[in-house]
Write a structure and sequence with these properties.
Layout: H1 2-23, H2 27-53, H3 55-65, H4 71-94, H5 96-103, H6 111-124, H7 127-143, H8 148-152, H9 154-171, H10 183-202, H11 205-210, H12 226-260, H13 268-278, H14 280-302, H15 306-343, H16 350-363, H17 367-382, H18 387-410, H19 413-443, H20 451-481, H21 485-509
Length: 522
């Protein structure tokens, strides 16, 4: 699973680098990126949250308790999901201008950018259906403990998009302003992006059939247990709603920064690129582990084996922390070098990549509470408790909205979105404190006997000292070599190697036993 995720994220990174080279990091890029945010947000709001957090335990339970192994329940559920997705997609395409208006302001000075975003959105909104198809088929596989295909098929989407952006760069004159993009370029970007998601979803069908699932439309939903799933999903949908409200506010404010400084690279696209890079360790390590653990944790909770559930949570937090903690410090120490190496190409240059690097630094240490929060919420989901995670999300969203509003109102446009990245970090730190308190009550005590605290104290100490070493090594190389792609690559390599060696040595000296969980260090 982790290998599939690594390949997926690596190809995704190549795709994103090509995307930034093609569109830049300014206002033109934000029209496409905002439109591409809309289908993922709406999919998550309509049904995605329920699929990811609620339905795996329900499918596992149906397979264990139903006489037919849950086959009929599964068929009814897939039918219901596809119907909701089809209706929601059609409605979203029809209401595209109104939806885009939530994310981007339509003013006389920015009307062309707004109209271009609406055009992109009409091409991209059909992704809602294919995102949902991918998720429901993936959950059917996960319930059968078949995890690999869902981690590998996104590679196909990335391959399609790499080809699309490669064609865009190689066959066309690349515009750098909203006014200069052509109808052909818009159609290539819109159709190609949606085609990539469609390929990703449809590629799961052979794996689902190989796992023994046979789909037959079933509309006999009443009195078959789906009501319990819908009721359980109620709180998850509210959870998703508050997250989407926060995302909408941030996107609107970040697009306002782009509209004020169209060529600075200090708005929504830079924020999105930085956040995507920042989340790579979470996607590779934490999500892979949780995907495998959630069915087991759900079973432990259903059977009343609370000590086993505690042990799983503690082990997951300690194991992921070995990678997540130093990764957060790496972004803090070397964010500008990372952004310059990856994004100072094509339509972007080193100057427009700098704000992105500073946003990556501001996100940096937030990776630690973000990952821990993600894991701890799965403790509630194992109990089929979706109400408590909603209140945790509402608290995080409220803190985030308050802080980003302060940044938007008080900071200059050049620094407002960097401040918003820092606000995201602080909001998850506040959320983790409250979530830990609530989960202790649910588990009837602490997650473990203190081993978790001791491990994280060692990891934080080792990673912070190693980050200082990596920063010093990068600074020395930059002073000696100057600027440019190759000097930046050498500088980043020196900083990364210096930090990695320092971290491994210090962690071993501090006897961090979880270090053995890393491949090659057993």
């Amino acid at each position: 699973m982790a290998l599939g995720t690594v390949v997926s994220r690596a190809t995704g990174l190549i795709r994103q680098v090509l995307q930034a080279a093609a569109l830049g990091t300014g206002l033109l890029a934000s029209t496409y990126n905002t439109a591409n945010t809309v289908p993922t947000s709406l999919y998550t709001l309509v049904i995605g949250g329920a699929l990811n957090a609620v339905l795996v335990p329900q499918l596992v339970r149906a397979r264990a308790t139903e006489p037919d192994g849950g086959r009929a329940y599964e068929q009814r559920l897939v039918t219901l999901v596809l119907c909701v997705l089809a209706a929601g997609t059609a409605l979203a395409v029809w209401a595209a201008p109104q939806i885009v208006g939530l994310y981007m302001r339509d003013t006389p000075d920015s009307h062309e950018a707004f109209e271009l975003t609406v055009v992109f959105a009409r091409f991209l909104l059909p992704q809602i259906f294919f995102y949902g198809l991918f998720s429901i088929l993936g959950q059917v596989l996960n319930a059968r403990e078949k995890f690999g295909a869902m981690m590998w098929t996104p590679v196909l989407n990335n391959a399609v998009l790499i080809g699309m952006f490669g064609a865009y760069l190689g066959l066309m004159t690349v515009p750098d302003r909203v006014e200069d993009i052509t109808t052909t370029q818009v159609q290539l970007l819109g159709l190609g992006t949606t085609a990539g998601i469609a390929v990703q979803a449809l590629a799961l069908i052979p794996f689902v059939r190989a796992a023994g699932s046979r789909f037959r439309p079933r509309f006999d939903w009443r009195g078959t247990g789906l009501g319990k799933s819908v009721h359980a999903a109620k709180w998850t949908l509210l959870f998703v709603l508050v997250n989407q409200v926060a995302l909408t506010v941030v996107t609107n404010y970040a697009n306002a920064a782009d509209q004020a400084l169209p060529d600075a690279g200090a708005g929504y696209s830079a924020y999105m690129y930085a956040q995507t890079i920042w989340m790579l360790p979470q996607s590779i390590v934490t999500v892979s582990l949780v995907t495998a653990l959630l069915p087991r944790m759900s079973k432990a909770a259903a059977e009343g084996r609370i000590p086993d559930l505690r042990a799983d949570l503690s082990r997951a937090l300690r194991t992921t922390g070995v990678v997540i903690v130093p990764a957060g410090f790496l972004f803090l120490a070397l964010g500008p070098q990372i952004s310059t190496l990856l994004f100072a190409h094509g339509a972007s240059d080193a100057a427009s990549a700098q704000p992105l690097g500073q946003m990556l630094q501001a996100f940096g240490l937030g990776l630690i509470p973000f990952s821990a929060q993600y894991l701890l919420l799965r403790g509630f989901y194992a109990f089929e408790d979706t109400r408590t995670p909603f209140f945790m999300a509402a608290w995080i969203a409220a803190v985030n909205i308050a802080l980003v509003t302060v940044c938007h109102l008080l900071l200059p446009a050049r620094w407002a979105v960097t401040g918003m990245a820092g606000a995201y970090t602080l909001s998850y730190l506040a959320g983790l404190a409250l979530t830990t308190q609530r989960l202790r009550r649910r588990l009837g005590g602490r997650i473990d006997d203190g081993e978790l605290r001791r491990t994280y104290a060692k990891l934080l100490c080792a990673a912070s000292l190693a980050a200082g070493l990596g920063w010093a090594a990068a600074r020395a190389c930059a002073a000696a070599l100057g600027t440019g792609t190759m000097p930046t690559a050498v500088t980043l390599a020196a900083g990364t190697v210096g930090m990695a060696v320092g971290y491994l040595v210090l962690a071993r000296l501090m006897k961090v036993s979880e270090l053995r969980s890393l491949p090659g260090l057993r």
